[in-house]
Amino acid sequence: MGLIRKNIIANLCGRGWSTFLAFAVFPIYLTFLGVEAYALIGFHAVLFSLLGMLDLGLSTTLTREQARLSVCEEGKSEQRDLLFTMESVYGVILLTGSVVVVLLAKPIALYWLKANTLSEEAVIWAIRLMGPLIGVQMYVFFYHAGLLGLQKQVAVNIVSVVFGTSRCILTVLFLWLIWRNIVGFFICQVSMAIIEVITLRVLLWKILAGSAHKVAFRVTMLREAAPFAGGILGNSLTGVILVQMDKFLLSRLLPLDIFGYYVLASMGAHALWPVITAVNQAFFPKYTQLLNQGLYDTMTELHHRCNQLISFLLFPIACLVFFFSYELILFWTHDSVTAVRSHHIFTVLIVGVVFAGLAFPYVQVLFAAGKPHVLMWINLFSIPVFGLLFILLVSRYGAIGAAITWSVVIGVGKLLSLLFFVSRPILKEDPLRWFTRDCITPFMSTLAVGFLGWLFCPKNISQIELLLWIGGIYLMMCIAAFLSADLLRGTGIDFLASLVRWRHNKKFNPGNIYPGKGSYEPSLKE
């Protein structure tokens, strides 16, 4: 099996399991902690995104440089020096950020958040624990980035699954048997994150072992990577402001319980991001290698495969949410009040996430081409537009207005902008070809099946029967999306043909089959 396909499968399995765990334990956390405490978990996610700017673009730079050096002679010694240099700088930065969060915990609890049922002391200690937790979590993502650049994505997902499962089990047991408090929740999260980051560091350094070269801190490597890292930093700064501005402002404008419903809807919509990143992280190292070799035709064809795979994965889920958002949230939370207050927000946000997901492969192309500053300028232009729409729509429609703003600016606007800046300048093709071939055909077929499933859905059936009906509609939408995507359909035909040849005792090697029509042999040793 080709390395890219193996990485995609590993990423989808790992991210899918992590998403399943997050949804599975949510009702338990909500029962043990309450909606206000869960809103603090949502605030931690916002704070994590804001402090993610301290990354300074080093994680993405590490992924790109590790991928580039992996095809160079004497690359291993360079890789070791790069890792040591960046992790040293990273440690100083994250320590500073964690201390700042701890020091600002009391002002944030007293003057920013609006807690009604939680005690002041519990909120303060929860925020204090967010400081070291965020620092350790960022180090986890840093080591993930190093392993992704080395295309060790199977190992990354194994570690993530093991520690994600252990973390959920430990936290649930702790809350159930020892201490049902938001502080206890964060204590469990910090403990498991520390063990995970130690494991990842040992694994990464073990993979890079074997060079007699003594590792050294090299300032020249930081200077050489500075232009690309600076572009990533600028993109991260502006991107975090855009992506988290809705929740950050609403945490101040809304009571903590109402904000909790928005966080719940946002969590449901953003559950698609693991699917999006699972695919794109598998393609990104290959993008970097192909562009570094100047193989633009191969790069463009690979990009179409990535787009169609994203469409196949996103459209059925998005259509399912569009037609059955209330039923899905009710089944998830077992709370009709929660479903009523959040399902419209959920529907609007899922549309924005789908558009943003379709734009993400173009973001990866920009990064692989060493042009992250393009996305930074798009984000800079989008910030005032976001602010203006947010003021107009939230003042009139409340939380649903914030969801509309997010979807229009970050979803639709970013996709259209990236099509203009990437399709012709880098990929040398007409954006309309991408739109019709990779998106509109799979979307229309999926939407038609979803609409028919919603229209003929039986009334007055049990929850289990409704769930089975929804599952059947989802399966039919997946089939429709797969058959209407020409490259994916070609993959299925090639695979079935190979099975037939295998049954006739001919040599069959699934690794020789690459998704799409015809054949493709990677130009690089994977």
Set down the secondary structure blueprint:
Blueprint: H1 3-33, H2 35-51, H3 58-69, H4 75-103, H5 105-111, H6 120-149, H7 153-177, H8 182-207, H9 219-253, H10 256-269, H11 273-293, H12 296-333, H13 336-368, H14 372-397, H15 399-422, H16 431-455, H17 463-483, H18 486-503
Helix pairs in contact: 1-2, 1-7, 1-11, 2-6, 2-9, 2-10, 3-4, 3-6, 3-9, 3-11, 4-6, 5-6, 6-8, 7-8, 9-14, 9-15, 10-13, 11-12, 11-13, 12-13, 12-16, 12-17, 13-15, 14-15, 16-17
Would you mind describing this structure in some detail?
There is one protein chain. By secondary structure, the chain is mainly α. Helix content is 82%, strand content 0%. The chain contains 18 helices and no strands. The N and C termini lie close together (11 Å).
Q: What characteristics describe this protein?
A:
526 residues, mainly alpha, 18 helices, 82% helix, disordered C terminus
